[in-house]
Design goal:
heterotrimer, A alpha/beta, B alpha/beta, C mainly alpha, B: alpha/beta, Rossmann fold, 2 domains, 10 strands, C: MetI-like fold
């Protein structure tokens, strides 16, 4: 498994500024060629910081550990290597399409920028930009290529951003909350588009999100993060039927699905996620967990271990599986 | 019996921009009603006009034509002074917990303003008691009184915003996407809080959201808005199980697909 | 003041200390001055610094040290008068302009722009010519030329803040306009202004001293630092102390207030940039 992974992350840790607190605390995971990985978690889980740190995109952050892209180490790599990878081999789609686009340059200019920097002629690069706009479903692409970002609606802008990310035919597409700022119907369109492009091109896709619904429909493998750590790794088919961690179960329970309107109240996880500087001892989730035993409150945060069809950081897994049937 | 809140033929246009003479129609002949004791949902995508409708009903925005009724009175043209006594009964919870609280006021200060104005209390300890009561209702504590908003998380700030509204003992609460900016587990907590207010305090509510599942959980009836118009209305079960309009059906499919288990 | 906790380097601590000292001297200076700053004594002209005359004496035998002490009050009081009046005019016009919008806003801002066209120096000279030179002429000239900046700044800050949710929330609560302005709008928009005021104290001190130096501001025998420098200029080569000590006072006072302004801006800036709302 290890060798065929296009991205291999080991003991990745991220600290911000002067703080001793770790936003990401030694996480390890892999991404295989062509697969879609979902990274889910709430605010403060470290999901965004982990991916951005791999690409060297975090300001004032201390990053430790290893992240190998096709065997080449990215953590601590010099700018030359990072610039080779960013945009060309790993494409990035961020949450706010408006912020990702330069308001004073045409869309075509921005999509073709990377290509022109790689030596393509302006004509050829523009032609490719039009082709990409067509691929991502922007109507009248040959005219729209000369339009400016503000002339597009939110969903169309996100398509433009996706076109930009795909321009240099990367091997991996990373999308950080790509649909949060979009309306529900547009969300579906954008996700369908990304998924389809990945399948067509044999690209791997990483979707970072807090929306479990997105996860359920668009990812193969899923990792759930909490307070800087991975608490569960599972797959789409199993995650919702049988979570491997009480936190995942808690998240699933608190969703007001169209199905469970009979319940008077939603089942919630009490309390708040911990502040990085004030982590509880033992398992970081234990103060909010209904399966806590004394051993959960002591020592270090439990390790993520292979179980069943995935991995779990819950040391009371047996008890949890038994009682959550 | 007259509805608690009613709008008739509400229309509102916004000009497109500085140099443009074009106008967008945010509200197009909107007629809705909310009975006392009801929780009514207002569903729509961005640009549907749902926030504009909410702000118009609360008289925080002027409409171009149409009428707004509260408890039988036509409040469409009410001045700020005329609205003041009604503010006790009609309260608003905003979407963004990070901008709806005065950063320079303590929680105590924020909550006491409404109490002083609308509950007729001036005795310091009486006011403090009321503040502690309402903080407890929303799941916060006495110690939170002297803190400032920046010391709280998004979910906690939203609780403070709800407490601010509750402190004046309102009969009607307009909630404009109150949980959209919050994490899933916190959303659930706030939704439970709102449901508790509905069940235990019998507060009528207009609940705006783009999230059908949330509306389904909290509301009895709902209106679906698109491009400034009401396109469908009815009991939540009816709308979501057997929608009559294609638009509603599209919304349901998109959200089911995005949220199915 | 909370910012005492945030003073970083020794330089900053020194700056705050010196500024505080100046303020103190402005208040008690005249009480502790060893000599009458206006008492001439032709037998003791141009005496170098000594234990009796700490900063020496000037062309007419007056004690430079006492004059510097009196000058502190004069300079800081003048700066305070300018700043306070300028802030008041600017804030009132800025608030009215921002909240009225439309025609009133346009008219007020164009009116403000007109006054921006006047250069302080030329105006001061004009006043000196018309009403006679003196520190009041300098103060008036500064007030007239300085207020437009504050009006524009205030207007911009209020416009930025007035549509924020918590302001709308105040309206939704039925809170009156005046109360909203005083308790919600102003505390959340004018922190930038406050920083600007502190920085401007330094600037005003320099301009007032400068105007006095060139002769259109305070006149000798007034113990104003700029005027003292002008007065002692011709004798600079043989009595350096007459020019040095007032000059040093101007320098240190302006720099220290400037640094205090910087500290304030730094402390408020993360909050501003974070701009929670």
């Amino acid at each position: 498994m290890q060798n065929s992974n296009i991205l291999e992350v080991e003991s990745l840790a991220v600290r911000f500024g002067e703080s001793r607190a770790r936003a990401v605390d030694e996480i390890s995971f892999g991404l295989a060629k062509g697969e879609t990985l979902g990274i889910a978690g709430e605010s403060g889980s470290g999901k965004t910081a982990s991916i951005l740190s791999i690409l060297g995109l975090l300001q004032r952050a201390t990053v430790k550990g290893s992240a190998k892209f096709e065997g080449r180490e990215l953590i601590g790599a010099d700018n030359k290597l990072l610039n080779e990878i960013r945009g060309k081999r790993i494409g990035l789609v961020l949450q706010d399409p408006f912020a990702a686009l330069d308001p004073v340059k045409t869309v075509g200019h921005q999509i073709s920028e990377g290509l022109r920097a790689s030596g393509w002629s302006k004509k050829r690069a523009m032609k490719h930009a039009i082709h990409l706009l067509e691929e991502v479903g922007v109507p009248s692409a040959s005219q729209r290529v000369n339009a400016y970002p503000h002339q597009f609606s939110g969903g169309m802008r996100q398509r433009v951003v996706i076109a930009m990310a795909l321009a240099q035919d990367p091997d991996v597409l990373i999308a950080d909350e790509p649909t949060t700022a979009l309306d529900v119907r547009i969300q579906k369109q954008v996700l369908d588009l990304m998924k389809q492009q990945c399948e067509n091109r044999g690209m791997s896709l990483v979707i970072i999100t807090h929306d479990l619904g997105v996860i359920s429909n668009y990812t193969d493998r899923i990792i759930i993060m909490y307070a800087g750590k991975i608490v569960e790794e599972s797959n789409r088919l199993k995650l919702f039927d049988q979570p491997l961690h009480p936190y995942t179960q808690g998240l699933l329970d608190c969703l007001p699905n169209l199905g469970n309107s009979e319940n008077e109240y939603l089942k919630t996880i009490g309390g708040q996620p911990p502040i990085p500087g004030k982590l509880p001892s033992g398992c970081r989730y234990h103060p909010r967990c209904s399966f806590t035993e004394p051993v959960c409150t002591q020592g270090d945060n439990p390790q993520l271990v292979p179980v069943k069809w995935g991995r779990s950081a819950c040391i009371q897994l047996e008890k949890f599986l038994r009682e959550s049937q | 019996m007259a509805a608690l809140v009613e709008t008739r033929g509400l229309t509102k246009r916004f000009s497109q921009g500085f140099f443009s003479s074009q106008k967008t129609t945010a509200l197009d002949d909107v007629t809705i009603s909310i009975e006392s004791g009801e929780t009514v949902g207002l569903v729509g995508e961005s640009g549907s006009g749902k926030s504009t409708l909410a702000l118009s009903i609360a008289r925080l925005l002027q409409v171009d034509s149409g009428q707004i009724f509260f408890d039988g009175d036509d409040i469409t043209g009410f001045t700020a002074n005329q609205m003041r006594p009604l503010r006790k009964a009609l309260q608003f919870v905003f979407q963004d917990p990070y901008s709806s609280l005065n950063p320079r006021m303590s929680v105590k200060g924020i909550l006491s303003e409404g109490i002083r104005l609308h509950r007729g209390l001036s005795n310091k300890s009486e006011i403090e008691n009321e503040i502690v009561n309402v903080l407890t209702t929303v799941g916060l504590g006495k110690d939170d009184m002297r803190k400032h908003p920046k010391e709280f998380s998004g979910g906690q700030r939203q609780r403070i915003a709800i407490a601010r509204a509750l402190a004046v003992e309102p009969r009607f609460l307009i909630c404009d996407e109150p949980v959209s900016a919050l994490d899933m587990s916190i959303q659930a907590q706030i939704l439970n809080l709102l449901k508790m207010l509905k069940i235990e305090k019998n507060i009528s509510m207009l609940f705006i959201s783009h999230d059908l599942a949330v509306v389904n959980f909290l509301c009895d009836r709902a209106y679906v808005m698109n491009a400034g118009k009401i396109v469908e209305q009815g009991g939540v079960d009816d709308i979501f199980n057997s929608p009559k309009e294609q638009y509603t059906q599209d919304l349901i499919s998109a959200s089911l697909l995005a949220k199915s288990n | 003041m909370k910012f005492l906790r945030y003073m970083g380097s020794p330089l900053e601590i020194a700056a705050v200390g010196f500024a505080a000292l100046m303020v103190l001297l402005a208040i008690i200076g005249p009480l502790i001055a060893p000599h009458d700053p206006y008492e001439v004594d032709f037998f003791n002209r141009f005496l170098p610094p000594s234990t009796e005359y700490f900063f020496g004496t000037d062309a007419t035998g007056r004690d430079v040290f006492s004059r510097v002490l009196y000058g502190a009050r004069l300079t800081l009081a003048s700066a305070l008068v300018v700043i306070v009046i300028v802030a008041l005019i600017g804030i009132i016009i800025g608030v009215v302009s921002a909240l009225s919008g439309g025609l009133v806003d346009d008219v007020l801002m164009r009116f403000t722009d007109i006054w921006l066209a006047f250069p302080p120096l030329v105006l001061a000279m004009g006043f000196a010519a018309a009403f006679g030179a003196g520190i009041n002429a300098a103060i008036l000239a500064l007030i007239i030329t300085w207020w437009p900046g504050y009006a524009r700044l205030t207007r911009a800050l209020i416009v930025e803040t007035k549509d924020k949710d918590f302001i709308v929330a105040a309206k939704a609560m039925g809170i009156g306009k005046i109360r909203t302005i005083i308790f919600h709008l102003i505390p959340n928009s004018l922190d930038v202004l406050f920083v600007q005021l502190t920085l401007d104290v330094a600037a005003v001190i320099l301009v007032i001293s400068g105007l006095s130096f060139i002769g259109v501001g305070a006149q000798i025998p007034l113990a104003e630092w700029g005027a003292m420098i002008a007065d002692g200029r011709s004798a600079m080569s043989r009595a350096w102390w007459v020019v040095f000590f007032p000059g040093l006072a101007i320098l240190l006072t302006a720099v220290s207030f400037n640094l205090v302004g910087d500290i304030l801006r730094r402390e408020l800036d993360p909050a501003l940039r974070r701009r929670e709302f």
